[in-house]
Amino acid sequence: MIKNFKFDKYIYWAPVLLLSVLNLYLSCLSWQEIRDQFFYVKIIPQSTGFKLRHIVQFAPLSLFSCFAFIKTTQLKLKKIYLYSFLIVFIEATLSEILQIFAPNRISAMMDILWSVLGGLIGLFISYFVLKIQRNNRALS
User: Fold this and answer.
1) Is 15 within the bounds of a domain?
2) In total, how many domains does the chain have?
3) H/E/C letters for each residue in the chain?
4) d(CA 24, CA 95)
5) Which residue segment(s) compose the domain that 132 sits in?
6) What are phi and psi of 131, to 5 degrees?
7) ∠ Cα 111 16 121 (to 5°)
8) Residue 1, pLDDT above cutoff 50
9) How far apart (Å, rounded) are the C-alpha atoms in residues 74 and 90?
10) Is 33 part of any domain?
11) Per the domain annotation, does 102 fall within a domain?
12) Per-residue pLDDT at 6 exceeds 60
C-alpha cells in the first residue's frame, strides 16, 4: 500500500477524466448513434456557422481541469490556465483525428477552433468564479 496517498485530493480529476473519455467516445460514433444514445444532443442547436455543441462539450472540460489543478497542485494561476488550455487543445485534436476513422463523420480543423473557443469560455468562467470567491473572502 502506498503511504500518504490521499485519494480525496485526486477525486477532483474524476470529472476531467470522465469528460475526456466521453468526448473521445463521441468522436468514434456516427451522428445517428450519437443522437440515439444521447438525447440532449438533439436539443442543442447546431449550424455550420456557429457550433454550439463544441462549446457545450469543451467548456466544462477546461473548467473542471482548472479547478482540479487548483485543488491538487501549487501551480500559479497562469500555468493552471495554460495547462487547462493544453488539455482542451489536445482533446479537441484527438477528437478530430478519431473522426477520420469514424463512420459518417467528417474531421475539420474548424471544429478544433470551436472546441478551443469552448475551452476558453470555460477558463473565463473559472476566472470569474475565482474572482468572486476572493471578493467574498475579502469581505468576510
Assistant:
1) no
2) 1
3) CCCCCCHHHHHHHHHHHHHHHHHHHHHCCCHHHHHHHCHHHHHCCCCCCCCHHHHHHHHHHHHHHHHHHHHHCCCCHHHHHHHHHHHHHHHHHHHHHHHHHCCCCCCCHHHHHHHHHHHHHHHHHHHHHHHHHHHHHHHC
4) 6
5) 20-139
6) -65, -40
7) 50
8) no
9) 23
10) yes
11) yes
12) yes
Cα–Cα distance measured from residue 26 to residue 36, given in angstroms and rounded to the nearest whole number: 12
CB 119 within 8 A of CB 92: yes
Q: Among candidates 46, 122, 53, 111, which has minimal Cα distance to 87? A: 122
Mean pLDDT, rounded, for 60-74:
95
Task: Answer for the pair 92, 108: CB distance below 8 angstroms, yes or no.
Answer: no
Q: Is residue 100 pLDDT above 70, yes or no?
A: yes
Distance CA 59, CA 72 (A): 20
Please tell me the total number of residues recorded for the chain in this structure: 140
Other CB atoms within 10 Å distance of the CB of residue 82 = 14
pTM (two decimals):
0.85
In a domain, 100, yes or no: yes
What would the grid cell of residue 82 be?
A: 495554460
